[in-house]
Each structure stands twice: as C-alpha cells, then as structure tokens.
Write the structure tokens for this entry.
Amino acid sequence: MNSIRVQYIQKQVALHRRELVNRLSSSSAPSCSLNGLKLLDIGCGGGLLSESLARLGAEEVTGIDPSSHLLQVAKDRATTLFLDPSTTKPQYEAITAEELALKRPRHYDVICVMDVIEHVQNLDSLWNATSTLVKPGGLLILSTLNRTALSYALTIVGAEYVMGYVPMGTHDWNTYRSPSEVQSSLERFSFVQVDVCGMVLQRPPICGWDWCLDPGNTDINWIGAFKLQSQEPELR
C-alpha cells in the first residue's frame, strides 16, 4: 500500500505546488518531485513512507513515532540505505505531534498521517498540533479506514477471525472514521478538504496485495488531502 500512498502524495503536491513552494518556478522541479519541501510523517513506524519521500528529493523529511523499537528499525534502515550525502536522509524522533508543535510551528509544507487516526483517542489534540506544524496553504494527507458494514466484514471478521492476517483485536471498528466525519473535525482547525480517494485491492489477497487508487470507492480504505487555509492571496 505504500506505493499508492506515495503516488497519491505526489499527485496532490503537484496539484498544489504553486502554493506550497512559491519560491520555485514550475520549470525548476518536475511535478513528481518533492524538491524544496519539508515533510513530516506522523506515526512513521519503521520508516517506509519517510524513505520513499526522501528519495523523491524532499529538502527535509522527519518521521515521529511513540515506539522506540520501530524508530530504531527506521534509523538502522536509513543508515544502511542512505549512503549518498547528496540525498536527503530521513530524520527520526521519539516525540509526539503535540510536543513537536511547540518546537517547530509553521515548519512543514506537507504532513502525512497514515493509518494513525483510528488509534488516536483525542483527535482534536492531533488536529491542533498539525494545524500548528504545517505552513498556511500546506497539506495534511491522511489515510484511514471507513466505518461501514463492508469494512467490518473484511478487516475484522475476514482479516482477524477467518484469515488470521492480523491478531484478533487489532482493529476497533468503532474508531474507524468516514471522510465526512474527518472533514467536519478538521474544519474546526481551518483545514479544507481538497480531495478524497479510495484504496482498493485489485484482486483477492490470496493472489497478492495489489492495491490501486479508486476515487469512487471509499467503503474500506481511503486517503484524503486537506489544505490549511491561508489568509494570503493564492498565486496565479
């Protein structure tokens, strides 16, 4: 699933790049590049997404996670994989988004929150932190699970009890959130929804985990982009 998340991030950055990097002309960086951008990966885990973003030329990539074990895995991977000094190396910190917001307000162009919010007890606290960390006009890109009958059948009954892909109790269907619920909660923190897209399997899991983006199907996994409103006029 990491590859289609990266694909989605690239697309959203390309669409909104003139706002995000007004110091670069449209010809100075290819649309698929993250050149000149500072990105934050909240709940980075072992660093797979952070690594992908760094390889796309981001100026700075920071991954944060509460798990010291996963952060050590991420740091070890970065030490092994990012040997070229001309390539941005992801930096990892054991810190919460709320704590980081006190240190680096208005610092990031893009913030990624992938498969995290279904595990967060206080979403308002997270949204307040992200609205502080991101620059005006910057993007918050998140993915999560929709709370539908189909998501319950597949991610809990199917994945946990029938197939055993993940341990029983991994998911709590009551913490899944629909795109409209997330949109409503983010609006209180000056974010506006700019896009929502589903992430679906092209074939049954027994044939391989082959994911694709599907704007018409957000019944289970979905990803969305939200922009922090800016008081400054948009570039033309």
